[in-house]
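---------- Forwarded message ----------

FYI, see the F-box domain-containing protein record below. Original note from H. follows.
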Amino acid sequence: MATFSQLPRELQQNILDHLVVDKKSLTRHDCQNLLAPMRVNSCWFNHTADILWNKVSNLETTFSNMGFEQDRRQFYVSKIRTLNLHTARIYFDLIEGLNFESLTHLMLRGDHMGILPFLQPNLKTIIFRASFALTKNELHQMAILCPNLHELKIIPANVDNHRALTPKPNPDPIDPCTFGSFFQHCRHLRSLDIGSKLPSPLVSAALLGLRPLAAAQLEELILTSIEPAALPDDIHEILEVCTSLRKFEIRSNYYTGDPFYMTLLLRGLATIPGLEHLRLDHGVVEDDVEEFTKRHNAPFGNLQSLALKGDMASISSFLSLSMQSLTRLQLVVDDHAHHICPTIGRLQNLTYLNLVIGINHRNSYWEGVRYHPQAHDWQATLDDMQALSTLSRLRSVNIRPININLTAPWLTDDYFFTWTSSFPHLRDLELDIECPVSFTAIVALSKTHALLRKCKLLWIQEIDNWDDLPAPEFLNLQQLTLNFVANIPQDELRSHIYRRFFKSPRPSGSISMTPMQLSLGSEHPYRRPGQDSDEPRVVTLGVKTVDSY
């Protein structure tokens, strides 16, 4: 019989590739399993070390404790492809002279004291997560030493990290002119995420620097928590030359900029025929939509994913465009007239719907905020639900309120069963609507949608007798969240829940057969009119799958 070393190299590689399921996301169990094959022979050792050192997040701790000689440190460092670290804690004397020759992904999560040791020709992704304090020389060296840079994220934030060293003073800080020149040399840049705590002049310089060389191949542009002053006056002209752009986002929960800039943004974006993903966290207004629809006959014709915030009229006008390619839709909408659902119902190819409906008091959106006073109750209508039931391709449905209580007192068990049956491919369901649907309807849901992965039904369940209730029969449930009135003493509650969801006999493959983590908490869901504060408290039941290792 041939030994392993005598097998064809292709067969050796095929066998070795089965050591773990995912080399880029090792579990603790994976790491333990790799210790044994490391001791087989040099071939297995090299391959296993290649897997174990593919992604490193604790280089600081590892090198300070290993005590390896220089050549051994170089052996392991040469295998690192993804490096996530707090560079303020790096012992630079331990990495001096080492060559990170295989490094393709670098994330700096802390206040850094220099990045030159990590800059390599193979580096394709650099992420500045906590701070951005490069010198002009370091930025210049990045342009020279990283000619294949494809993805750059500069999204610094203030981090309270008592372990981090105080960063040394920057003797030669970057100015806007140098920053803009850097982007002119990034000829292979495909993705740019910039903003947050970065000064507005640098953000503006980066956007100006995209034109004309980098813009032609840029595929993703994400602006995170930027000030309106950071957008150049000719931002629409810059976007117009981004002919390869597939994804554009303005991310912020607090963006309240000048609507004039939103008009310019939409005017430029509407000219990009290949745009597939669009997210605008600043609420659009109807005049913005009218502006770019007058200039273009069929804007956003290839859009597949859309995330918008605004009032019902402007969003309805936007959705009325010919966007039958749209499969993912996320909306935060003011909809006093309840007209948005029929508009959504026309998008027959949707597979994902996340609808947050309510009131925007401050021109900023805090998703998930609920109000108790009955004056803020909005009632979902039968027409709303019926309009959404036409979206038979939906795999994920999420409907919840913002700054209101969304109610549906007319919603019965039978209608809930009929409505959910309209989505045969459903895998994720989250409804935060106060209604009288009972636990029996949830059991029925488990039979028609046995493969549901996520089920969050946040109305208040009235459960009187745990032992007499039928068991749900979900086969692949990974997350279950319910609100219910606890009519039994708190110290007995956990044992009752375990008996309810983990009792025998258990259907094969059901939720009861999966390793689970159960949590109980007191939430603040809608409190029915007239309910006294001393009535049984509402408890939130959360059940999640957990890693068995």
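H. also flagged this: Residues 453-549 form one domain.
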